[in-house]
Amino acid sequence: AQRVTQPEKLLSVFKGAPVELKCNYSYSGSPELFWYVQYSRQRLQLLLRHISRESIKGFTADLNKGETSFHLKKPFAQEEDSAMYYCALNKAGTALIFGKGTTLSVSS
Amino acid sequence: ETGVTQTPRHLVMGMTNKKSLKCEQHLGHNAMYWYKQSAKKPLELMFVYSLEERVENNSVPSRFSPECPNSSHLFLHLHTLQPEDSALYLCASSQEPGHGELFFGEGSRLTVL
Question: What pLDDT score was predicted for residue B61?
Answer without folding.
Answer: 93
